[in-house]
Design a protein that fits this description.
mainly alpha; 4 helices
Length: about 90
């Protein structure tokens, strides 16, 4: 993957200050924070099928059937339910 950089000018000082504060709250540099915002926006615009493609591919490679997958999900759901206070058998 190629990387590059961009420079943005004419950002009002109050916006830049708020951006810096928001980044610091998350333990990030302003550049990292802005990069993640851009990546999240781009990712959000991708079709769901494209996002899920690697997951589907791994599922096929696993050899697990849909019924086995459904059973696994149900077992985990039940285990989580039983861990909640007041829901134990």
């Amino acid at each position: 993957m190629q990387t590059g950089s961009i420079q943005i000018s004419d950002i009002p000082s109050e916006v830049l200050r708020a951006l810096t504060e928001r980044a610091q709250e998350q333990g990030k540099t302003p550049a990292d924070y802005v990069r993640e915002l851009i990546e999240a926006d781009i990712l959000a615009s991708r079709p769901l099928a494209e996002i899920l493609a690697p997951i589907r591919e791994d599922f096929v490679k696993s050899g697990m059937t849909e019924d086995e997958f459904d059973a696994l999900i149900e077992e985990e759901r039940q285990a989580l339910w039983e861990e909640k206070p007041g829901h134990a058998n």
